[in-house]
Amino acid sequence: MKYVFFDIECACVFKNVAKMCAFGYVVADERFQVIEREDILINPKGKFHLTDRKGGQGLVLPYEYEDFKKYPTFPAVYPKIKALLEEKDVYVIGHATRNDVNYLNLETKRYKLPSFKFSYYDTQFFYMNCENSFSRQYGLQAMAEELGVQFTPHRAVDDAYATMRVCEALCKRENVDVCGMIKKYGIVAGEIKKYNLKLTTSRLLKAYHAEREREKAERAKAHEEFFRFVNKNMHRRKKGGVLDGKVFCFAKEIEDEVSLSRKLVAEIFASGGRYTSRPGACNVYIAREKSGARCQNALSAGAAFVPLGDLEKTLEEK
After folding, report:
1. At 245, phi and psi to the nearest 5?
2. Has this prediction a pTM greater than 0.85?
3. Which of 178, 230, 244, 282 sits 20 to 30 Å CA-CA off 193?
């Protein structure tokens, strides 16, 4: 069994375009001994337009951009890349591999070439399973620093080599090999076939999604319960009370704490105040912290911000 670690750099990436300029790979044995490594440079047939993940500050690749004009185009190197990734009895592994596989997919479509067909794994996904943390993405450089791996960012073959060393370090930390890592966390490989991509998944990821759905359902239930209470009692508010003319809106997290939000709204109604779920329609916004889009919407519409503790204190004194 062999491992093929790979990484791709592009001259530009847009929604349906990814003009590849470098395909770096490292072939290693089961002990992570390098058998072969290469940086395949490609003429992207287009200008370089490099941005960071947010589409802002430009990245700088460690290459001379003018040199790419003399390299072969993607169709010329496609057979070699295809043979490498589709070889039998190999584990194909990248970092945030879905992105690179999608770049391959877009280039084959661009040049009207047959689809790739192979399964793949992802060191980023390995790490997320090891940490049981699926709420954020982990960059190769950050993971490499944590695991003591050094490399030159954005040189494709160096990124591929760093991916291999990160994989090796993770396996060492977990006291498994790649096959053992896959079995330990019930990881199912991603796949590309007939221009369609299937994402990697795992036992822990499925549990994470199930928990997210459960929490979402609980929030929806709490939201519904709170507004049933508001709609039922809003017409019973005291006319001419000390809060007459005040229209309150709570942060979402307060609305979802039904025992708290119901108590607060009942006291607001008892003092003549009103309640709205629309932050732009209130004149008093209540939250624990002065942050978030909902808060900003309220403040932009002229609402006063009142910390939750201050409101509770005020209502207790009435």
Report:
1. 95, -10
2. no
3. 178
Find where tokens 């607001």 sit.
Answer: 268
- Report the side by side order of strands in the sheet with 247-250: 274-275, 247-250, 284-287, 304-307
Task: State the sign of the Cα–Cα–Cα–Cα dihedral 264, 266, 272, 277.
Answer: positive
For residues 170 and 18, the answer to whether their CB atoms sit within 8 Å is no
What is the domain partition of the chain in residue ranges? 2-201, 232-317
Beta-ladder partners of 119: 191
Q: How far apart are CA 87 and CA 231, in angstroms?
A: 64
User: Are 28 and 6 a contacting pair, CB within 8 Å?
Assistant: no
CA gap 236, 266 in Å, rounded: 10
Q: Give the model confidence (pLDDT) of 54-97 as tens digits.
A: 544 566 777 888 889 999 999 999 999 999 999 999 999 999 99
**Can you give the pLDDT at residue 247?**
96
- Domain 2-201 in CATH 3.90.580.10: no
Q: Which CATH number fits domain 232-317: 3.40.190.10, 3.40.50.10190, 1.10.10.10, 3.10.580.10?
A: 3.40.50.10190
Q: Which amino acid is at 263?
A: K
Q: Which two tokens stand for residue 269?
A: 């109604």
Residues belonging to the chain: 318
Which token pair is 139? 């960059």
pLDDT tens digits for range 159-185 = 999 999 999 999 999 999 999 999 999
Report the pLDDT value the prediction gives residue 59, as an integer from 0 to 100. 66
Q: Which two tokens stand for residue 31?
A: 């002990």
Residue 98 CA, chain-centre distance (Å), reads: 12
* Residues 6 or more apart in contact with residue 290 via CB below 8 angstroms: 305, 307
The continuous run of DSSP H or E covering 275 comes out as strand 274-275
